[in-house]
Amino acid sequence: MSHVKLTRYEGNPILAPIPEHPFEAQNVSNAGAVDVDGVVHILYRAEGYEKRNPYTKDWPVTSLGLATSKDGYTIDRRLPEAVIGPEPFGEFGEHGIQDPRIARIDDTYYITTAAVSRWGDRVILYSTRDWKHFTKEAVIQPEQEMRTAGMFPERFGDDFCFLLRPQPNMWIGYTPDFKHWCDCRPIWKIKRNTWYGRKLGLAATPIRQDDAWLLFWHGKDDTLDGTYSLGVMWLDLDDPSRIIRVQDEPILTVETEYERAGYYPNVVYACGVVERDDTYLVYYGCADRVLALATVPVSDCRLGG
Questions:
Q1: Which domains does the chain have, with CATH numbers?
Q2: Which of 43, 54, 90, 201 could be stapled to 148 by a disulfide with Cβ–Cβ 3.0 to 4.6 Å?
């Protein structure tokens, strides 16, 4: 099969902060993405200058903004206010909601997010059907301090299936109701002195192909700089805890200035992938400052290709 390598879009970055919008005046970055009736909806992490967290004063409040694109490349519409903001004080998410991943099951879009609070990071699941109203469904495994998680876009029997990341490794877990869990176990672990030597986790929502689940994932190396990169692997369709193949080399790593320098340096971090015209469009945050786009032919990503 082909060696998978992402190609940066020449129009990068596709989203940058807007000083006139307080909720996104400083940074925009990691974005989930999904095709809704032919229009790509991009749900992105946004940060202004407000700070709430007395324990880590460096980090601003995070919210989720919404932009849309008909062709997947050019932003046609961008809302002037956040669609999901911080939770009330005293709740998980009181200091911000970030890093959304979107999975559509039937007519519902489930949005898995990282929530920041005085108790550390947790995962909060929201849902929407119309992209105007958003419902808080659950705090996912609230006993776990965790910030990276995502759902598969279909049920396995009666259960929803999640990829989770109690640091530093990637786990799988099943739940019928987002409260009761079974068969939770690690499926992919860090490897010292590699590009995923410090921590790893899923990037975008898994993509069903003919013979496997395609999973874009991220790793952070164990150098002092802690550079993030993106990789790809394939999981069994019926038993996604079984990894069929992992490409050893990353598909994208930090190279450009907008990936090196920003609010947090040396980061490429994807949360959303959309298929358009036999091409995967990979939306990735750069140095926690701007949002960029990279592409790869679908045919290059097929397990049996």
A1: 7-300 (2.115.10.20)
A2: 201
CB count within 10 Å of CB 223 equals 12
Burial of 22 (0-12, 13-18, 19+ CB in 10 A): middle
Question: Rounded to an integer, what distance in angstroms lies between the CA atom of residue 298 and that of residue 134?
Answer: 31
Report the predicted TM-score, pTM, of the whole model to 2 decimal places. Answer: 0.97
What is the per-residue pLDDT across 212-224, written as a single tens digit (0 to 9) for each?
Answer: 999 999 999 999 9
Per-residue model confidence (pLDDT) at position 141: 97
CA distances from 48 to 19, 45, 79, 193, 283 (A): 8, 11, 15, 36, 21
HSE-CB of 179 using CA atoms within 13 angstroms: 2
Overall size of the chain counted in residues: 305
What is the Cα–Cα distance from 68 to 283, expressed in whole angstroms? 13
pLDDT tens for 104-133 read 999 999 999 999 999 999 999 999 999 999
- Is the per-residue pLDDT at 56 higher than 70? no
Q: What is the pLDDT of residue 39?
A: 98
Residue given tokens 């940060």 in the structure block: 47
Report residue 133 as tokens. 């109203």
Strand 290-297 relative to strand 279-286: parallel, antiparallel, unpaired?
antiparallel
Angle 127-150-300 from CA coordinates, rounded to 5°: 120
pLDDT at position 180, please?
Answer: 97
241-258 tens-digit pLDDT: 999 999 999 999 999 999
